[in-house]
Amino acid sequence: MKKKAVINDTPVCQVRMQAISDTMSILSGKWKFHILGTLIEGTKLGFMDLLREIDGIGSKMLSKELQDLEMNHLISRTVMDTKPITVEYAITEYGATLSPLINELAQWGIDYRNSIHR
User: How far is CA 23 from CA 48, 65, 69, 101, in A?
Assistant: First the structure.
């Protein structure tokens, strides 16, 4: 017989857990934080620039992750009227709200590495 959850029983906690689930769904994957962290630095970057900047990602995966981030309004995609056509990606105003979260994750990672390499 399965026990009833005690911690997630309150409406406030259920809303919080759903919000965490939604956030993890939008930001899941190995590369989204890398892409967002790169674009949050305040520059617009082309596809090839992002590909060079994010070590280890392939072009197919970068394309998919950029589409997901654009669909969720975290980045914008601008097609330039040039020959050949170029595309620039930038963080949106809403995407920039993730900056404190990304900075905290980065700091946690720095602290963690320092603690295990002592």
Answer: 28, 15, 12, 12
What are the DSSP E strand ranges found in 1-118?
Answer: 45-46, 75-80, 86-91
Please give the Cα distance from 117 to 22 (Å, whole number): 34
At 43, the pLDDT band (50, 70, 90 cuts) reads confident
Other CB atoms within 10 Å distance of the CB of residue 100: 9
Q: Is the dihedral of CA 103, 50, 87, 31 positive or negative?
A: negative
Q: Are 75 and 69 in contact (CB under 8 A)?
A: yes
Reading the block at residue 105, the tokens are 């994750």
Q: Which two tokens stand for residue 51?
A: 């590909």
> Measured between alpha carbons, how far is 95 from 100 in angstroms, rounded to an integer?
11
Residue 57, token pair as written in the block: 């990602």
In 3D space, the residue among 104, 98, 111, 42 whose CA is nearest the CA of residue 69 turns out to be 98
Read off the pTM.
Answer: 0.83
